[in-house]
Amino acid sequence: MAEEGSATNAEWFARARRVIPGGVDSPVRSFASVGGTPYTVVSGQGPYVVDAEGTRYVDLVQSYGAVLLGHAHPAVTGAVSRALRHGTTFGAPTPGEVLLAEAICGRVPGCEQVRLVSSGTEAAMSAVRLARGATGRDRVVKFDGCYHGHSDGLLAGGGSGVAMLGLPGSAGVSAGAVADTEVVRYNVVPQLDERVACVIVEPVAANMNLVPPAPGFLESLRAACDAVGALLIFDEVITGFRIGAGGASEWSGVTPDLWCFGKVIGGGLPVGAFGGRGAVMDELAPAGPVYQAGTLSGNPLATAAGLAVLDAVGPADYEALSARVAAFATDFESAVASGGLAARAPTVGPLVGLFLSPAASEPLSVPSDYLEARLLAGSGIYGRFFHAMLRRGVALAPGPYEVMFPGLAHDEQVLGRVVDAAAGAATEVANEVATRQG
Ligand SMILES: *Cc1c(COP(=O)(O)O)cnc(C)c1O
After folding, report:
1. Do 196 and 139 meet the contact criterion of CB atoms below 8 Å apart?
2. Best residue for ligand 1 mutational test, from 26, 119, 121 (most atoms within 8 Å of Cβ)
3. Within 6 Å (CB) of ligand 1, which residues are found?
4. How confident is the model over 155-171, as pLDDT tens digits?
5. Host domain of residue 276
6. Is residue 49 within 8 Å of 71, Cβ to Cβ?
7. 296 and 118 Cβ atoms separated by less than 8 Å
8. What CATH code is carried by the domain that includes residue 394?
9. What letter does residue 181 receive in the DSSP assignment?
10. What is the pTM of this model?
11. φ, ψ for residue 163 (rounded to 5)?
12. Residues with catalytic function
């Protein structure tokens, strides 16, 4: 890495911008909404990443939730290097894809079959196609602020990266592509009719910061779908194998017709999956008429990495992590309050949201939909807090609509460092805000 070691973050980013649009391969990585120049990561270890200048950060991004065990975990690197020796892709069935599919179906009650793909985007896009094929209907209902990848029909009201750039959807998406997509308010059960093929939802919304489902919301959604024969799709690309082995369906007790997975199930390599009951999945080619395919789907390196992660975590690990993170979130809120800002850090399992407000004396409630989340993000305070944390060696996501992803590598000591940094960062930001107002 001699060449990498000699360049600064700014030099890397300048080179990146010459040959990569905006200098990034995914817009959420840019510092567009917080200002400044992104750090270029050269390595990661456990809860840490190290940038091109040798600065080490406690990393709460963890590849936006793709990493659960921490960076470069030996179970994952070992499994990948063992698989690597036998070849990287064949275009024929392999044992690894069978093992990963069995591991997923074995942990998620009701999910009898999965088809492996290479990203969460593909999983959601294919699940919607399958729902349309299986029902013979066209309309798709999605919730404002929920992200289901960047396919044309699902980008409307997509939260996160789309929201960060202030785009309503995207240029380049035809009116026809979204004509059958209806965007409705999260946490409100929509009116459905018999034209609706499916309702797709993040059962715990984690792309508009963290917005948990209101009590009864998912149950009522299930009933509303059943009443008109629409399929319910849980997009568990974030929640799957993160909030527990059985994901959000186990957590909520609500069973969808179709699931989308990604992130954790690839162990840091490109994997997605969509699954459901055998009868619905049988509609897929070659068994049925709904076409879906992929040259690298079920890739041996990716399935080895994913399987290593799923095998490394059991129910006790999820419970311990969730308990540790619940205590962390409480301490984090107190630390920010002690510095003079208001904060709410809601948790669902080990997912942590972060809502900030400069009005320290006013009670801050956790938003229940995208409109409320956007109002809070509009204070613009997140960017200042983000940079104040970065200067203290803690890397949060560079945008106000993401969640924190503490994982198994974030022990109490590491999380304690984050809390200390939060107290200092909040003090600094509160002083800045006071000075500007004074
Ligand atoms: C990240 C994400 C996706 C898209 O996954 P990619 O692998 O980035 O294509 C889809 N749905 C949800 C809920 C996500 O968080």
Report:
1. yes
2. 121
3. 119-121, 124, 147-149, 202, 207, 235, 237-238, 262, 272
4. 876 766 665 554 457 88
5. 74-312
6. yes
7. yes
8. 3.90.1150.10
9. E
10. 0.96
11. -65, -40
12. 147, 235, 263
